[in-house]
Specification:
The structure is a single chain. By secondary structure, the protein is α/β, with parallel strands linked by helices. It has two domains: 120 residues, NAD(P)-binding Rossmann-like Domain (Rossmann fold), CATH 3.40.50.720; 178 residues, Rossmann fold, CATH 3.40.50. The protein is built from twelve helices and twelve strands. The chain has a seven-stranded parallel β-sheet with strand order 8-7-6-9-10-11-12, sandwiched between helices. Helix 8 links the parallel strand 7 and strand 8. Helix 5 packs across helix 7. The protein is elongated, with a radius of gyration of 21 Å. 37% of the residues are buried.
């Protein structure tokens, strides 16, 4: 029987022709659906029982989907780090190997957080908008060394954000459900505090935690009540870490000053969403991982994980254009 692979990683689908020879030479047929950000459970059900492997983005592999794909499905190779869209327990029970590429986007995501910090602190987007409509308007700004930063989730990305912020002279706070290496905290100058303390103390909150049962809607209505009215919330983790309706209310009622958002509860962000008309919100389309070098590494590792899961050898050919 021919090996079939569902190829739905949105960063690889547009350049799938670069990889076809790798699959063809190994006797693999590709199923390449049209993907806008991710495939839903209903969309995935269209391929149930047809594939031996999957190379995906944030597709919703729930327990019912995985059961429908079993017993043929052997491996899901996740493009990127987060596997919150995959029911890992169900996959393990059904004998489906789940692979990802941890630490893939630490630097570009950390840089994105810093871009939000600088944009809000220096008012760059708003100065630009004013100038382009003919207003010579001096909007107040702050130096980052005058500001405090709280990072929720002090993993690889959280640490990278804190290291960058230290260079700017910011006062730093961290929060995590696991113990963080004391050597890092001493070296960078991070004070670990409770979430409530962090929210009440800082000018900027950066969410860099995984999405799991402990972090779902971690930032809710009660959390916004604890934040300072001049505070800015930055989210480059997962949209579901924030209770989005509560954030909309907090911005409208000026409980907080602004938000920089790269991720959302529903992606793509629906047309007419309240965020799109808010002057104090900066938006990007789940693009914090943008980096040709990082993408190349993830392309290679995702393919390698897929082939290993199928029991095949993966050799990177010199004839592939990765950029």
């Amino acid at each position: 029987m021919t090996i079939k692979v569902l190829f739905s990683a949105p960063y690889m689908v547009p350049i799938v022709d670069r990889f076809r020879e790798i699959f063809t030479s190994n006797g693999i047929d590709l199923i390449v659906p049209e993907v806008i950000e991710r495939l839903s459970e209903d969309q995935l059900m269209a391929y149930a029982g047809e594939v031996d492997g999957v190379l995906c983005g944030d597709d919703r592999f729930s327990e019912p989907v995985l059961e429908a794909y079993a017993p043929r499905l052997k491996v899901i190779s996740k493009w990127g780090t987060g596997i919150d869209g995959i029911d890992s327990d169900a996959a393990a029970r059904l004998g489906v190997q789940v692979c990802n590429t941890p630490g893939a986007f630490t630097d570009p995501v950390a840089d994105t957080v810093m871009s939000y910090l600088l944009a809000f602190a220096r008012s760059v987007p708003w100065l630009d908008r004013a100038m382009k409509v003919g207003r010579w308007q001096k909007i107040p700004g702050r130096a980052l060394q005058e500001c405090t930063l709280g990072v929720v989730g002090v993993g690889n990305i959280g640490k990278a954000v804190l290291r960058r912020a230290r260079v700017f002279g910011m006062r730093l706070f961290g929060n995590d459900i696991v113990e963080i290496d004391q050597a890092f905290l001493w070296d960078v100058g991070v004070e670990m505090v409770t979430l409530d303390q962090l929210l009440s103390l800082v000018d900027f909150v950066s969410l860099n935690c995984d999405l799991n049962p402990t972090s779902y809607h971690l930032i809710d209505r009660e959390a916004f009540k604890k934040m300072q009215p001049h505070a800015v919330l930055i989210n480059t983790s997962r949209g579901q870490v924030i209770e989005e309706e509560a954030l909309i209310e907090a911005l409208q009622q000026k409980q907080i000053a602004g938000a920089g958002l790269d991720v959302f509860e529903d992606e793509p962000l629906p047309k007419g969403h309240p965020f799109m008309s808010m002057e104090n919100v900066l938006l990007s389309p789940h693009n914090a991982n943008s980096s040709p070098g990082a993408w190349k590494r993830v392309h290679i590792n995702s393919l390698r994980n897929l082939f290993r899961g199928l029991g095949l050898e993966f050799v990177v050919g010199n004839d592939i254009s990765w950029e």
